Known about the structure:
The structure holds 2 protein chains of 2 kinds. By secondary structure, chain A is an alpha+beta fold. Chain A has 17 helices and 10 strands. Chain A has helices spanning 2-15, 17-41, 46-57, 60-68, 73-92, 94-123, 152-161, 197-200, 229-236, 283-286, 308-322, 330-333, 349-396, 401-439, 451-455, 459-486, 488-505, and strands at 134-140, 165-180, 183-193, 205-208, 224-227, 246-249, 252-260, 276-279, 298-302, 336-341. A 6-stranded mixed β-barrel of chain A has the order 2-3-8-5-7-6. The longest helix of chain A has 48 residues, at 349-396. Chain A starts with a helix and ends with a helix. The mean pLDDT of chain A is 84. By secondary structure, chain B is α+β, with helices and mostly antiparallel strands. In chain B, strands 1-3-2 form a 3-stranded antiparallel beta sheet. The chains are: A alpha+beta, B alpha+beta. The A-B interface holds A 1-2, 5-6, 9, 23-24, 26-28, 30-31, 33-35, 56-60, 62-64, 66-67, 70-71 and B 27-30, 32, 44-52, 55-56, 58-61, 70, 74-77.
Amino acid sequence: MAVLRTIAAGLRSLFRRKTVIREMDQELGMFLDMAAQEKMQKGLSHDDALREVRLERGSLEIAREAVGSAGWESVLETFRQDIRFGFRTLRQHPGFAAVVVTTLALGIGANTAIFSLINALMLRTLPVRNPGTLVELFHQYPGEPAFNGFSLDSYKIIRDGNHVLSDLLVDSPHFFEVRGETLETQKVIGGYLSGNFFESLGLRPAIGRFIGAEADDLGHPSPVAVVSWSYWKSKYNLDPTILGKQIVVNDTPVTIIGVTEQGFAGLLSQEMSQDILLPLSMEPVVHHSSLGWGSMWLVGRLKPGISIDQARAEMAVLFDSAIQAPDVGPYVRQMKFKMELAANGISTPLRQMLRTPLLALMVIVGLVLLIACANMAGLLLARGASRRHEMAMRACLGAGRLRLVRQVLTESLMLSLFGTLLGVLIAYFGVRGILRVITSGRQVVGLPVHIDAFTHPDTHVLSFTCVIAVATALLFGAVPAVSLSSLLAPGLQQIARIGVEIMAAL
Amino acid sequence: MPEKAGDLIQGTLDMLILKTLALESMHGYGIAVRIEQMSKGVFRVNAGSLFVALQRLQRSGLIRSEWKASENNRRAKYYVLTEQGRKRFNSETREWERQVAAIARILEA
């Protein structure tokens, strides 16, 4: 109750400020009147009475200030004053403000852009149950990059022989040419799934049902498909009659039986969504595949308490025995097994290609921002020399040192805020530009990229940007703020000189 | 005791205000005068501390305020003790008496 009342009273004095001040003035006026009246009854003149009340009771001006700054809301009130004052100061120096804001916008924009790429490619985890226990399996020919993509035989050996994985999933990405009653022929990324896929990942269908154990029955391919939520939205406008509709995938008709929940579209991480998911048993039918080496992409889930190193050791032995099978070619026999955590999805070519350059870029833009901060601190310091006078004047009028520091820091924060707003815009268009450049005409990337997945607002990116905005303001604002408030003496002398001149003129 | 006459011991002003209002509701100046009278001029209440204390007490729900006509027929803000304030005053009085008695025993020992 008391807390609510305190909040309510504080809000009242914030929003009904004029009323509250008027009431306070009235109350203090009454106080002064009554006290003075009593003195005058004892025979003092009006002026003398007022003076004596002031001596006895302290200045009423100070009383008003004291009451005003006692409540919690005074912090906000001071902040509001600082911001208003900051606005005025910045308006008086538009050139200075423009230079600082532009510099910051470029610095913060570059950082946000690179970070949102890193976030989408390396930090964002898959929207599935316990993504941290997912591992991706690779094989690697000496001197070449590692690839996922195993054969049916090796898949079976690894699946049935290991004691370290609770599940072994198949999610083999493929291009599909899809057409249907209402659909024009279009190339879509999709995939072939094992029957345990949805259950192991803890996913539920948005509507319909998912592909189940029948997916693994290679003798009886079931012509069904699950589509992603985003595909349902863009092609069918979330129409529930999609269930039971037929689409033609690479000349093979299949029936849509379900839609994934919003946000999930396969394990390819989120910049590339797998929109059409077919059972594994359909791969030989649709793609005329014999499920040889390179075709089956495997993702495992570690058993509780098993570390990835333990798992690696056992899986490598299984892999070695798999490649010793008589029908395996000499090239495959030279391959080594590899396994990595896959909490943010299967490693796509885009991700492998960008990983190192992105991290290097992040460091570089971070350094650029630091240098920009140093430059701006210098700029602010230089400007501080011309503000000494103003600071001294404010100190004379009763502003404490903390208040002066706060004022300068508030101005820095405002500059940084404007810079950040502009920087986020720059980052938004910058990321799109960067991706267009990266993904245009590069065969190695191959798969179309969902650019929206990178520029989609995300709490990671937003908090990163907020943190660098505040950190930047503190970095370039703190030194000038403290030095300004501590250099009061010369400013005071200046004011004193002006005062003497005025007195002389009078 | 306070270093110079008229200073209040930290934290006692709230209790004195509550005591004053327990007798009757009162405006700010009246409270100041009453505290002075009751202390036979020992305590002189500064306007700043008084109104800060009044705001604090009001926000914690121990007193409330209303605008009324004063004795010489002007609008004045009167402070009234709430039920919660009365309880607090009683408990604080007991605690105060306990402490005073204890300190007295120590000083007399």
